[in-house]
Amino acid sequence: MSFVEKTFRQGEVIIKEGDIGKSFFQILEGKAGVYANYGKNDPMRIAVLEEGEYFGEMAIIEEYPRSATVVAIGTVKVVEIEEDALGAYFRRNPDQIFALMKHIGNRIAAMTKDYQDAENLLKEVRDAEAAKKKSLFTKIKKHIDLYQNNKSKMGDSVENPAMAEFAKFKDDKTGKTETYTKGKIFYKEGDTGTGMYLLKNGSVGMYYNFRRKDELKLAEIKAVNVFGEFGVVTDGGRNATAVAESDGTVVEVIYAEDLETIFKTNPDKVNLILKQLSYRLRKVTIEFLSLCKEITVTYNDK
Question: How much is the pTM?
């Protein structure tokens, strides 16, 4: 197994939706289009990938079928990294560990914005008079098309494959560990992220508007797990407040600059973070498609 450079010409398919992937790619030169329903009567271009961007990574990180077709726009040069060669690729290019995490994080951020836009659009569509306005039609049609082209990817639930990895995780007793008492805050909503956390013992609550009248507990994270990774790999602030829910909550603090060293000594830690990020992307994508479905149903009922 290896990683090799390949060249694709205009219109050539690089990966195909539905295939079982055993490799992922980084664009070295050129551009590529990402499509749903490619080769059918109603193909939809979802995105355009530029030089330096990755694609196909979820197929090997989470072992899921390809979620889209990627096609060369003009001449495209890529490096293909096969599943068994990922470790060797990172050892040769250690700076790409964080680059790949940041790539997935940016995709999560973009999809989260799409989700929020869809929420606002749904409110407008629910207004019978607003739904009749022509100015809304283009936005509504986009979401209807997205739902129709991707409804086969929707499911009733989203399993996190990282959980199985966390369950068998073996702590090597290395890293910068800290112990928190119940109620201690790791970081606040809106803070700039500098470190992510591997939760080794105890539990952590994630809150919106912590200690305010409209406080909302989003989730409770149990050991072993990763949290805070999204705030580190994106340019935005923390999207929630993280609070220790029990005494003796032990975490390992991981900074971006530590990743190369960690990968050399315990690559499983890096793989856990990648799996967690990939899961978050898949989860918000499915939630977004569910909103597109609701927009479709609501608009068609008007």
Answer: 0.78
* Chain centre to alpha carbon of residue 232: 13
**Mean pLDDT across 140-155:** 57
pLDDT band at 154 (very low <50, low <70, confident <90, very high): very low
Residue count of the chain, please give it.
302
Q: Which two tokens stand for residue 164?
A: 């199985």
For domain 162-267, give the CATH superfamily.
Jelly Rolls (2.60.120.10)
- The neighbour count for residue 11, using CB atoms within 10 Å, is 10
What burial letters (b/e) apply to 27-45, b meaning 16+ CB within 10 Å? beebebbbbbbbeeeeebe
CA distances from 119 to 6, 102, 114, 116, 209 (A): 41, 25, 9, 5, 20
CATH number of 3-85: 2.60.120.10
Q: Side chain identity at 84, as an amino acid letter? A: D
Q: Which position has the token pair 């909503």? A: 189
Contacts 24+ apart (CB under 8 A), 163-171: 165/268, 165/271, 165/272, 165/275, 166/224, 166/225, 166/226, 166/272, 167/224, 169/224, 169/268, 169/272, 170/268, 171/200, 171/224
Do 105 and 230 meet the contact criterion of CB atoms below 8 Å apart?
A: yes
**Residue tagged 């999809």 (tokens):** 111
Residues in CB range of 34: below 8 A, 6 or more apart: 45, 46, 47, 48, 49, 55, 68, 69, 70
Contact yes or no for 83/252 (Cβ under 8 A): no
Residue 69 vs residues 13, 15, 35: alpha-carbon distances, Å: 7, 5, 5
